[in-house]
C-alpha cells in the first residue's frame, strides 16, 4: 500500500542530483530505506552538505549511486564508511572530493542565483587540483596578483532531510540547522520527513518562525517517527551507536551489507 | 597525600593548553576529547590568571555551540578572523606541514581511503594557530611527502593566507612550525622518548637542539585544575572519555609518566 | 553622568563606516539621539542595510555624515527624508546609490571573507554606471559573453541596531531579522540596544537559539526601553506615525530641524 | 438591490487581478494597498476556479511574510525564480520601460531627490511579470526619457535577464509591454478616458488600436468577491485604506465610474 513515504520517494528519479545533510543534522533514514526498498532508482549524484554518513553508505551499497560530491563520508565513532570506501577504491563510483565551505559556497551561489561564489583557501591542495569544474582567477578588484577559486553554483534536483516538526501548511522547523534551509533554497524539489506534525502555524509565532523553513521551499512532508534512526536528531534522540557499529561491522563486505539490509528492512519499511 | 604524577595524556593536555595561551576563541572538532580538554584547561588557567575569557566551540556539540547559522558559520567565523586556534589531525602529515585526510596510494582509486578532507583546505588558510595533533607517531603517519594534499602547509607568495600550521603535537613530542623554512623544529620530547626513537618514527627531516628539552609536566596547581574542574567540564561532553581518564589517573593500572 | 548608552556611543568615532538597519528592522534611535547629543562625532560613512529612515535623516541633519551608501532613504508613510534630500541636492553629502541586494551582497562578501560577490541585474542602470567601485566582468564559467557585476566586500567599522532582548552573556534575540546578523558578521564592532535583558540563556533553548545572534559577534549591549521610538519594533510596538509626521514637517528646514531636536532632546537623552 | 457599479479604484484592482492570472507567488511592496488588493482578488478568483493556490508576500508585513531569512530573502527568492509577479512604481517611467526612482535633474545633485532605487535594479531583471503601477498619469511622470535609470526596461543581448516590464497600469489606462519593439502598446482606456487625453498626458509614443478598448469592469461575482472577502482580508493589513474604500464604494460621496 502506498503511504506518505512512498509519495515522497516517488519524487526521486534516476540520474538526479540529491543533496543530503550531515550525519548530526537531520538525516532522513526512513525515507532512505524506503528508496532502497522501492529499488527503482539508480545513477544518483549525491551532494553531501557538507559530509555524509550512513545514508550515503547505504545508497552506495545498494548500487544506486554513480557520483558522490562530498567533504567526507564516515560513520563517525563507528569508523569508516565501508561501502563508500570499497566503492571508491574499486572505482565503482566517481568521487568529487571537496572541502566543507566549498560545498556551502556552491549551494549559496544557487541560493543567490549567481553562477559562482569565490572562496579563499584551497589553492595548492590536491582537492583543487582534481576539480576541473572549479576555476582559479585573479581577483579583479586587487591591484597585484591575487588568485582566488570560483566554485560553480550547485543546483540539486532534490534536497532531502529529517526535521523535528512541520505544520499543516508545510512549514518546517529546522532551528539553528540553517544549512537545511540552504539546501532547500538551492534545490528544485525539497522532501522533508518529520518527527511530528503540529496543528499550530509555525510562522504565526515569531519565536518558532525564526527557526522555520517556509513552506514556499518545501515540496512535500511526511511523518516518520524516529525517522533519522540510527542517526540522532538534535533535541530529540541521540545516535544509536550500537546499531551504527553493528552496521559498520556487517557492511565490511557486500554480502554482509546485503544480509544487514534484508534483516533490518522489516523493522522500518 | 601528594597527587600522582601526570600521565602521558595529561602531558598532552597541558601542552595543548600552553599552545593556546593568549587565544580568545578556539574551535575543536567533534570527536576530539584531548584537544577539548586542553582548551578547557587553557580557559581555566586564563580565568585564574585574570586574563581575557577564552571561548571554546566544540563542533557538533549542542552545549558548546556558539553558532546559530548552520554548519557554514564555523567557516565564515574563521574567515572573519574570529577563531584563533583549531586542531587538525591527518592520516599523513609531512615535513612541509602538508596534511592528507584522503587516503594512501594514487588518487582517486586509492589503496586505503579515509573519510575526506572536511574543512581542512579552508581552515588551514584562515586560522592563525592550527595545531596538528595526532597521538600515533610512526613513519606511516609522519611521512616525507603526503600521497594527497588535503591542505598545504604553506602557500606561494601572493596567495591569501592568514593561517597555517603552528605546532605538531604527537604521542612522542612537540614540534613548532617554521613557515619561512618551511619545516618543523622539535621543541621537546615527551618523558621517556629519545631523539633516536624520534628520528626512526619520523619520515621527514626536522630541526632540533643537540639535546632536546623534555616536555614539561604541569605544576601542582595546573594538575589540580585539570583533575578537578576541567575533568568535570569534559565529562559533560565526553562522558566515556572522562570516565576512562579518571580511572587512568586515579590508579587502576596507572600508565604514569616516569619523571 | 555616563551610562550604558554613553559606553556604547563611545565606540563610534569620526570617520567610521557605520551600518544601520532598515526602518522596520530595529533602528537604535535612543543610541542615535545620544550620539547626536554627545556631539563629538563627524564624517560618518553610513551604510544603510539596505535602506534608511529617521536615523539617517537625523544624523545628516546634525552634520555628522559625509557619505551615505543606500538603496533609499525615506520616512515611509511620513514622506521623503527632508535633511537627506536637502543634503543630496546641495551636494553636502556624497551619495552612493545602490540597490538592496547589492548592499546585502557586499555584507555577505565580508561575512564570507571574500573580496567580492557576483550579482545579477544592475547592468544598464545608472546605479551601476555611477559606481566606479563595482566592476563588470565576463562570467569566467560561461562559454559565451556573460557580463556580471562584482560587488566589493563591505566592511563596516561598526554595526548598530535595536532588538527585543539580550541575555546577560550578550546573546541577542533577532528572530527572523537575519540581516541584523549579517551586519554583525561583517562589522568589526557591533553595538546593540534592547528592550529588555533576560536572565535565561538564549542559547540554551533551541527555540530561542534559532533566532539568536551569538555574543561572539556582539561588542556591547545596553538597555533602552522603547529604544527604536518613533520607529517601531516588530512584535513590541508600532511606529509612532504622528511623531514621524511631526518630524517630517519640522525638518523641512535646517532651523526647523534644530528646533525639533532641541525640543525633543530631553525626552530621550 | 443591485450592487453600485465599480469605482475607478475597483477597476484598477480588477485589472491587476487579471494581470496576475496564472501566477503562483506574487510579492507586493509595503505601502501598496491597491496591488495587494489586486493580488488578494486574484487569489480568491483562483480559489473559486479551483486553480493552484496563489501565494502573496507583502513586504514589511509580519502577517503576510513568508520569509524567515532576513531582508535578503526576497531577492534570493526572486533570483531562484520563485516569484512570478511584482509591482514597481516610478517617479518617472519612459517609453522604453525604464524606471527612475532617484530624482529629477542631473545626478547626483538633483533638483528633486526621491528616496532611491530600492530593489528595482535587481527585481526588474529577475521577476517575469513586473507590473508598473502608478495612479498619476501625467507628462511629468510618463516621460520620453527618464533622467536616471534606476532599472532599465530592456537589456542588451547576452545580458542575463529573466524578468522585466509586463504591463503599465495607471489611472488612465492599461498598457502591455512589447520587449521586442521595445515599447508599450495601449491595451485599454479606463472608463471616461479618451485617446486624445492619453496622448496629452504621456511623454512617450505608444502603439494603440485605432479605437482602443475600454478597460472592462468586473462581473457581478468578481465585484461581490472584492467587496466581501477581499476587502475583509485587506483590512487586516491596510485598515485605513480598507475603511476609506468601504466608504467610497458604499455611498458617501461616491466617486463612481460612469459606465
TrEMBL record, chains A, C:
Heme as UniProt keyword: no
Enzyme class: transferase
Keyword hit for Transferase: yes
SMART domains: CoA_trans (SM00882)
Gene Ontology MF terms: transferase activity
A Pfam family that the UniProt record links to this protein: CoA_trans
Entry's EC annotation: 2.8.3.-
Keywords: Transferase
Gene3D superfamilies referenced in this protein's UniProt entry, alphabetically: 3.30.30.40, Glutaconate Coenzyme A-transferase
Native source species: Sedimentitalea xiamensis
Name under which the protein is recorded: CoA-transferase
UniProtKB/TrEMBL annotation, chains B, D:
GO terms for MF: transferase activity
SUPFAM superfamilies per record: NagB/RpiA/CoA transferase-like
Enzyme class: transferase
EC number of this enzyme: 2.8.3.-
Regions annotated as coiled coil: none
Keywords: Transferase
Gene3D superfamilies per UniProt: Glutaconate Coenzyme A-transferase (3.40.1080.10)
PANTHER family membership: ACETATE COA-TRANSFERASE YDIF, CHOLESTEROL RING-CLEAVING HYDROLASE IPDB SUBUNIT
Full protein name: CoA-transferase
Native organism: Sedimentitalea xiamensis
Amino acid at each position: 500500500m502506498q503511504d506518505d513515504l512512498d509519495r515522497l520517494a516517488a519524487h526521486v528519479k534516476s540520474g538526479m542530483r540529491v543533496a543530503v545533510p550531515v550525519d548530526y543534522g537531520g538525516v532522513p533514514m526512513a525515507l532512505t530505506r524506503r528508496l532502497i526498498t522501492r529499488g527503482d532508482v539508480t545513477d544518483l549524484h549525491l551532494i553531501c552538505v557538507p559530509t555524509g554518513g550512513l545514508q550515503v553508505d547505504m545508497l552506495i551499497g545498494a548500487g544506486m549511486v554513480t557520483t558522490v560530491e562530498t567533504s567526507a563520508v564516515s560513520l563517525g565513532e563507528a569508523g569508516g564508511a565501508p561501502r563508500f570506501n570499497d566503492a571508491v577504491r574499486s572505482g565503482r563510483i566517481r568521487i568529487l572530493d571537496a572541502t566543507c565551505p566549498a560545498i556551502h559556497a556552491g549551494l549559496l551561489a544557487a541560493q543567490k542565483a549567481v553562477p559562482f561564489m569565490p572562496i579563499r583557501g584551497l589553492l595548492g591542495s590536491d582537492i583543487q587540483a582534481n576539480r576541473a569544474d572549479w576555476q582559479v582567477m585573479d581577483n579583479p578588484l586587487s591591484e597585484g596578483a591575487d588568485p582566488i577559486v570560483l566554485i560553480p553554483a550547485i543546483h540539486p534536483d532534490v534536497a532531502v532531510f529529517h526535521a523535528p516538526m512541520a505544520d499543516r501548511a508545510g512549514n518546517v522547523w529546522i532551528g539553528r540547522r540553517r544549512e537545511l534551509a540552504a539546501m532547500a533554497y538551492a534545490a528544485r524539489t525539497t522532501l522533508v520527513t518529520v518527527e511530528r506534525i503540529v496543528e499550530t502555524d509555525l510562522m504565526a509565532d515569531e519565536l518558532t518562525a525564526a527557526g522555520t523553513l517556509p513552506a514556499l521551499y518545501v515540496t512535500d512532508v511526511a511523518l516518520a517517527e524516529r525517522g533519522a534512526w540510527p542517526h540522532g536528531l538534535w533535541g530529540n534522540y541521540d545516535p544509536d551507536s550500537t546499531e551504527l557499529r553493528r552496521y559498520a561491522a556487517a557492511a565490511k563486505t557486500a554480502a554482509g551489507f546485503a544480509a544487514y539490509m534484508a534483516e533490518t528492512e522489516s523493522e522500518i519499511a | 597525600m601528594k597527587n600522582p604524577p601526570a600521565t602521558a595524556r595529561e602531558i598532552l593536555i597541558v601542552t595543548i593548553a600552553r599552545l593556546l595561551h593568549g587565544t580568545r576563541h578556539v574551535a575543536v572538532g567533534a570527536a576530539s576529547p584531548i584537544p577539548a580538554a586542553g582548551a578547557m584547561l587553557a580557559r581555566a588557567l586564563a580565568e585564574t590568571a585574570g586574563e581575557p575569557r577564552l571561548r571554546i566551540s566544540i563542533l557538533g556539540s549542542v552545549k558548546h555551540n556558539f553558532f546559530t547559522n548552520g554548519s557554514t558559520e564555523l567557516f565564515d567565523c574563521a574567515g572573519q578572523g574570529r577563531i584563533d586556534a583549531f586542531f587538525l589531525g591527518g592520516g599523513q602529515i609531512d615535513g612541509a606541514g602538508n596534511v592528507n585526510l584522503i587516503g594512501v596510494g594514487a588518487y582517486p582509486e586509492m589503496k586505503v581511503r579515509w573519510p575526506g578532507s572536511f574543512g581542512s583546505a579552508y581552515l588551514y588558510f584562515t586560522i592563525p594557530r592550527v595545531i596538528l595533533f595526532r597521538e600515533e607517531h610512526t613513519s606511516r603517519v609522519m611521512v616525507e611527502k603526503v600521497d594527497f594534499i588535503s591542505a598545504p602547509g604553506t602557500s606561494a607568495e601572493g596567495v591569501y593566507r592568514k593561517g597555517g600550521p603552528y605546532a605538531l603535537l604527537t604521542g612522542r613530542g612537540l614540534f613548532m612550525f617554521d613557515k619561512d623554512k618551511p619545516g618543523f623544529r622539535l621543541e621537546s620530547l615527551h618523558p621517556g622518548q629519545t631523539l633516536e626513537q624520534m628520528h626512526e618514527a619520523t619520515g621527514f627531516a626536522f630541526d632540533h637542539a643537540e639535546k632536546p628539552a623534555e616536555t614539561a609536566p604541569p605544576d601542582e596547581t595546573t594538575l589540580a585544575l585539570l583533575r578537578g574542574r576541567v575533568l568535570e567540564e569534559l565529562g559533560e561532553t565526553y562522558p566515556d572519555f572522562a570516565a576512562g581518564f579518571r580511572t587512568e589517573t586515579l590508579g587502576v593500572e596507572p600508565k604514569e609518566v616516569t619523571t
